[in-house]
Design goal:
The structure holds two protein chains of two kinds.
Chain A lengths: L3 E3 L2 E5 L4 E7 L4 E9 L5 E8 L4 E4 L2 E6 L4 E6 L8 E9 L7 E2 L3 E6 L1
Parallel strand pairs in A: 2-11
Antiparallel strand pairs in A: 1-3, 3-8, 4-5, 4-9, 6-7, 7-8, 9-10, 9-11
Chain B lengths: L3 E4 L2 E4 L4 E8 L5 E7 L6 E7 L2 E5 L6 E7 L2 E7 L7 E8 L8 E2 L3 E5 L1
Parallel strand pairs in B: 2-11
Antiparallel strand pairs in B: 1-3, 3-8, 4-5, 4-9, 5-6, 7-8, 9-10, 9-11
The chains are: A mainly beta, B mainly beta.
Chain lengths: 112, 113
């Protein structure tokens, strides 16, 4: 099956940039997504990128995709305490029956 | 209205009880999903409904029984659950099945005693 891996934890200081990384194995991925989950809440879609793109910027968020290395990253500029959450990357692929496969999740802690 | 509403927010039940979780969306989405999520883990897909028909059952035990009464509603009927079924149950919807842009509810936190 498909594997989507993330580092478990990231700590940054308020105002710094955060970079959350994700690696996946399925070469037939079509879209890749970043979801955010705050404590006690459901998941919220932040942004997504089509697999034939290598970068997408949306306000403070920048998504980079290296399809050759199957590596996806999410950069959050000027990180705020409200950005503290768990971030999940996810992918859909033709090989996976177009089901959404979530990564293991990265807990981002923003310190003052 | 871009919300998925789930009730109840919290549920405590014994192993012999029968209860139901409810989910509602009014975005005109034709795909609805149930996920189970344990603490600090990614959501695990349980069921997918597409156009009110069950299209995916991820080998979920029969003590979980989904129901889609109409295109806006999704239920999850619970019976004879085990303590290990305690988790956050998330409902989600998308325009069509296979779209990764899911809208999630806040979840129902279930505790089985």
């Amino acid at each position: 099956g498909e594997d989507v891996e993330q580092s478990l934890f990231l700590s940054v200081r308020e105002g710094d940039s955060s970079v959350i990384n994700c690696t996946y194995t399925d070469s037939s991925s079509t879209y890749l997504y970043w979801y955010k989950q705050e404590p006690g809440a459901g998941l919220q879609l932040l942004t997504y990128i089509f697999s034939n793109m290598d970068m997408k910027q949306d306000q403070r968020l920048t998504v980079l995709l290296n399809k050759k290395d199957k590596h996806l990253s999410l950069r959050i500029a000027d990180t705020q305490t409200g950005d503290s959450a768990i971030y999940f990357c996810a992918e859909t692929s033709t090989g996976g029956g177009n089901k959404l496969t979530f990564g293991t999740g990265t807990q981002l802690k923003v310190e003052l | 209205d871009t919300e998925v509403t789930q009730t109840p927010k919290h549920l405590v039940m014994g192993m012999t009880n029968k209860k139901s979780l409810k989910c509602e969306q009014h975005m005109g989405h034709r795909a609805m999903y149930w996920y189970k999520q344990k603490a600090k883990k990614p959501p695990e897909l349980m069921f997918v409904y597409s156009y009110e028909k069950l299209s995916i059952n991820e080998s979920v035990p029969s003590r979980f029984s989904p129901e889609c009464p109409n295109s806006s509603l999704l239920n999850l009927h619970l019976h004879a659950l085990q303590p290990e079924d305690s988790a956050l149950y998330l409902c989600a919807s998308s325009q069509e099945r296979g779209h990764g842009e899911l809208f999630f509810g806040e979840g129902s936190r279930l505790t089985v005693l």
